[in-house]
C-alpha cells in the first residue's frame, strides 16, 4: 500500500510536469469531492479521502491550475468503462455519496469515493428501451427499477425514489429496496400502499417528519404520503392540466417535474410544461417566476428571458432547489441552463442558450438539457442529462452574480436601439460601454459564426498577449487566467492577425458574448474582478 501510494504521488507529479505548462490539466477542488481531469477525461477521485502526502502532491498541481470545476461522468480511469451514466436525472447527497437516478439505465448510482455503486440491473438499451426495466423489491443488488427520475434524502438516512416508469414510490436503505406506495399501474387513486396509483411520478421531497411529497407528473398534481403511508392530494386537479393559481384544490399544474421543500414548510414546484416555478404554502398556490406562453401543438411555449421575475421566462424547468440565502436555483432544461431566482430578479448562473459539453471554468461551462440539481455546502450538483454526466460547480461569488440579460448588455453599450433600420456598417465590438478598436482586421460573420481578431480584443481587456514565433504558440494572460493557443492547429491568420470565433473566446475565458445581428454589434460582459 505504501509503495502504491508513492507510485501514485510520483505519477501525479509527472503528469503536472508533463501537462502543466500547456494547461491541459485541470484541478477540481471545491465541494464534497475533487477530481483530477486531464484534457477533459476524469482520471481520479481523490479528495477529501486522499492522504496528506497525496494532497501535498496535488497542491503542486493546483499551483498551475486555472480551473476549479468537478465533472463526474462515470469515468474513474483513463479507460472508458461500459457502465457510464445514461440519462441521469434526480440527484441528492447521502452519507454514502452522490446519489443519482440514472434513468435510462434503470438504476440508482451512488458515487462513493473511488467507485460507483450501481443499484438495480441495467436496462436493455435500444428501440425497446421504454420497456426495459421492471419492478422488483429486495436486496439492493437484485432490485429492479424502470426509468427512475427522482431521489431525495429522508431524515433517517434512507433514499426515497420516484420510480417513474413503474408508477411507484420506493425506499432504499443500505441493504434493501421496498415499494412504499403504488402498484405499478398508471392511474390516479389515493389510499395506502398497493391500492395507490400514480402516473409517471418524476420527483419526490421529504419533510423533517418523514412525510413524502410527490410530483405526480402525468396526473398534473402534487400528492403527499404521510408517515402512516396514507396518500392524499395536496394540490392540483388530478388528470387535468392547466395553469391556475389559488386555493390548492382549484390550482392547476401542467406536468410538474421537480420539488423542493424548504425548512419553513413551503413546497416549491418546477411546473415544467407551464414553464414556471410555483409555490405551495398554507393551502395556496402562487407563481414565483415564469409563465406559460401561447399554445402550440398542444403545449404552452417556453422562452428564455432573464430580468424581473414578472417577465422572466423558462423552457421546461425540470428541477428546483434552494440556497441558504433563500434564493431558488432552477434546472431550466430546454434552455440548457441553471437559473437563479431572487426576490428581485431571475438570472442565469450556468450554461444557457446553446447545448454543449465544453468546460474550462465554471463561468463558461456548457450543459445540455439539465434535469436535476442539488445544492450542498457551497457546491451545485447538476445532472447534465443529455451529456450523460454529473457536473459539480463551486458556487463562488462570481457564479452567484449571474450573467446580465441580453437586454441589459445591449443597453449598457449606449447605442440607439430606436432606429427604424438595422445598422449595416462594420461589426462593432463593445466591452461595457466602450467600443474596441479592432485594428486592420475588422470582425465579420459567416455561416452563423462571428470572427474576431484575438490581439486587439484581449489587449483592450488588459491582457498580456505574447507570440512565440518559433512554436507559433500564442499566450494570453489576464490576472489568474492564462491560456495557450496553437495558431497552427486551432486558429488561423488573416492579413497578419490571429483570428478566432466568439464561441472559442467564450471557451477560453469567463466572458459573456451577445451577438446582435440587427445592429451589427457584439457586446461583451466581463466579470468585474477581471477589469480591476
How is this structure best described in words?
It is a single chain. α1 runs parallel beside α2. Strands 9-13-12-11-10 form a five-stranded antiparallel sheet, with no helix packed on it. Strands 14-18-17-16-15 form a five-stranded antiparallel sheet, with no helix packed on it. The protein has a five-stranded antiparallel sheet with strand order 19-23-22-21-20, with no helix packed on it. It is mainly beta. It is about 10% helix and about 40% strand. A hairpin with a 5-residue loop joins β10 and β11.
What is the strand arrangement across the widest sheet?
A: 9-13-12-11-10
Residue-averaged pLDDT: 78
Q: Please outline the major beta sheet.
A: 5 strands, antiparallel
**From the helix content, strand content and strand pairing, which structural class follows?**
mainly beta
Shape: elongated
How many H/I helical runs? 6
Count of individual beta strands: 43
* Helical content band: 10-25%
Q: Unreliable segments (pLDDT under 50, ≥5 consecutive)?
A: 1-69, 73-82, 124-130
- Taken as a percent bin, the fraction of beta residues is 35-45%
Distance between the termini: 48 Å
Radius of gyration: 25 Å
